[in-house]
Amino acid sequence: MAELLEPDICVIGAGSGGLSVAAAAAQFGVDVVLIEKGKMGGDCLNTGCVPSKAMIASGKVAQTMRDAGKFGIASVRPRIDPSSVHAHVHGVIAAIAPLDSVERFTGLGVHVIDSEG
């Protein structure tokens, strides 16, 4: 038989908005259930904001190397290694993922359910 839950708040989706609401409510002592069918962190962490900003940061560094002459530093043409840029992007995701993890939210007192809302 399924467990009957009667939380004060049920948050559907563990993207940036859902995680913020769940964490804040839990810190106020509210009984919270969080339902997520995919990856914790949602699109922002896994396919959107975080990876795109990590890639943009790599591109800015490369452009800064090209433009260094404007600052009295010898400009260089960067050698870009796509697999290393890929590793950088996934390293940034991996560094942030524990903040959005089931374990962290369970530790905050949120009941996390891996399912469709």
Task: Provide structural commentary.
The protein folds into 2 domains: 7-40 and 102-117, FAD/NAD(P)-binding domain (3-Layer(bba) Sandwich), CATH 3.50.50; 43-100, Helix Hairpins (Orthogonal Bundle). The chain has 5 helices and 3 strands. It has helices spanning 16-27, 42-46, 49-66, 82-96, 102-107; strands spanning 9-12, 32-36, 111-114. The longest helix has 18 residues, at 49-66.
Offer a few descriptive terms.
Helix Hairpins; 3-stranded parallel β-sheet; 117 residues; FAD/NAD(P)-binding domain; mainly alpha
Write the layout of secondary structure elements.
Elements: E1 9-12, H1 16-27, E2 32-36, H2 42-46, H3 49-66, H4 82-96, H5 102-107, E3 111-114
Parallel strand pairs: 1-2, 2-3
Helix pairs in contact: 3-4
